[in-house]
């Protein structure tokens, strides 16, 4: 009976991910643990930071940030159902993390000091003009791996990691 329930769960998870591929701008691709530590070192957060993770997946970035900076406010925005549920479950005991099931293009991010994204270049090109309109001047947008070819980054940080993904951070100051 337990095997049947687990099998049904995995089938539903797989189907939900297939649906997400066709209905969202980016699939859920988790950041490798090794890269995650490097990202935390380079985000330049402090205890007054307000961090948004657009397309937060299972909220692993937010969890690690709150571990290091327990007083920050962090908000994850995720539209895909399965990652959203995983994020809610993983962060349910942390009052500094709020997870919202929303489209990243319609989310209110106006109070952000930092915005983290791990999104394809095409999505970045659509997202950046919206962020420039909604966010304060000086807000940092940190993209893992992918850059917006229409904007010059403020900084590119090469992460010393053996991971296949998460090799660099592209930083934009709005």
Describe the structure in your own words:
- By secondary structure, the chain is of the alpha/beta class.
- It is 38% helix and 19% strand.
- It has 5 helices and 7 strands, in the order ααβαβαββαβββ.
- It has helices spanning 2-23, 33-42, 60-68, 81-91, 121-134, and strands at 50-54, 73-77, 97-100, 114-117, 140-144, 155-158, 168-173.
- Strands 3-2-1-4-5-7-6 form a 7-stranded mixed beta sheet, covered by helices on one side.
- The termini are far apart.
Which regions contain 5 or more consecutive residues with pLDDT less than 50? none
Outline = globular
The CATH topology annotation reads as Rossmann fold
Broad CATH class: Alpha Beta
CATH architecture descriptor text: 3-Layer(aba) Sandwich
Helix count, per DSSP? 5
Tell me roughly what share of residues is in helical segments: 25-40%
Alpha-beta content class: alpha/beta
Work out the count of structural domains: 1
Strand content: 15-25%
Spatial gap, N to C terminus: 54 Å
List the helices and strands and how they pair.
Layout: H1 2-23, H2 33-42, E1 50-54, H3 60-68, E2 73-77, H4 81-91, E3 97-100, E4 114-117, H5 121-134, E5 140-144, E6 155-158, E7 168-173
Parallel strand pairs: 1-2, 1-4, 2-3, 4-5
Antiparallel strand pairs: 5-7, 6-7
């Amino acid at each position: 009976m337990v095997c049947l329930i687990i099998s049904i769960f995995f089938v539903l998870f797989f189907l939900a991910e297939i649906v997400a591929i066709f209905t969202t701008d980016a699939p859920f691709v988790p950041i490798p643990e090794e890269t995650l530590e490097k990202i935390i070192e380079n985000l330049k957060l402090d205890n007054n930071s307000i961090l948004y993770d657009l397309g937060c997946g299972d909220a692993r970035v937010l969890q690690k940030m709150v571990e290091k900076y327990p007083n920050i406010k962090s908000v994850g925005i995720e539209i895909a159902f399965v990652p959203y549920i995983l994020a809610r479950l993983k962060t349910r005991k942390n009052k500094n993390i709020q997870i919202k099931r929303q489209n990243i293009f319609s989310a209110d991010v106006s109070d952000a000091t930092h915005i983290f994204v791990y999104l394809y270049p095409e999505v970045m090109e659509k997202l950046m003009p919206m962020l420039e309109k909604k966010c304060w001047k000086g807000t940092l947008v940190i993209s893992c791996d992918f850059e917006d070819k229409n904007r010059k980054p403020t900084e590119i940080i090469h992460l010393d990691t053996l991971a296949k993904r998460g090799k660099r951070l592209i930083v934009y100051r709005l």
